[in-house]
Amino acid sequence: MPLILRGLDSCDVDSLVELSLRAWEPVFAAWREALGNRVYRLAYPDWRRTQAAVVRAACETNPSTTVVAVLDGRVVGFAVVVLGEADDVGTRPADLELVAVDPAAQRQGIGHRLVEAAVTIMREAGCDYANVWTGGDDGHAPARALYESEGFAALPVVHYYRAL
Fold it and tell me: Which of 11, 69, 108, 134 could bond 77 through an S-S bridge, CB–CB 3.0 to 4.6 Å?
């Protein structure tokens, strides 16, 4: 069966949470390595619980701008778009808030299809530009490659941590 992109159904959320935790496990492993165990445990004591809540909240808040990827009848990825409000000169931003593809389905172009669908939602809503935030660590390397291949330009940002 071909890949199907569709809107969010409320029964998708548990599957999206589960696949996102599998997809983002390498990210949190890279952060543990970068920060060291002590700071990591302080900053991310239960990343799975926190990330599950983030995914649930994003889907609940943005159901009409969440795209779900289905392959062979199984949910394998999603993207959440947050449409911004126009500023005082009329420029309207949009955020690609979350993107995840199940590791078992990665390297098949699903991420590209999700980003393309998200950008289409943004354009159709009259947005002028898109934001997406990701990490500079090794765990986020595939995400950076995806965004750059889709025409996003990086603005380097550094986020420092320190145990007190």
Answer: 69
Pairing mode, strands 66-71 and 74-83: antiparallel
List the 4-7 sheet strands across, edge first. 4-7, 66-71, 74-83, 93-101, 129-131
Return the SS3 of 79.
strand
Q: Considering only the C-alpha atoms of the chain, give the largest distance between any 2 of them, rounded to a whole number of Å.
A: 53
Beta pairing, strands 129-131 & 93-101: parallel
Task: Output helix, strand, coil percentages for the chain, rounded to the nearest 5.
Answer: 50, 20, 30
82 exposed, middle or buried (CB, 10 Å; 0-12, 13-18, 19+)? Answer: middle
- Residue 162 makes CB contacts below 8 A (sequence gap 6+) with 39
Using CB atoms within 10 Å of the CB of residue 157, give its burial: 0 to 12 exposed, 13 to 18 middle, 19+ buried: exposed
pTM for the full predicted model: 0.92
The SS3 assignment for 161 reads coil
Using DSSP's 3-state secondary structure scheme, residue 159 falls into coil
Kindly state the helix (H) or strand (E) to which residue 157 belongs, with its residue range.
none
Set out the domains of the chain in order of their start, with CATH numbers: 4-149 (3.40.630.30)
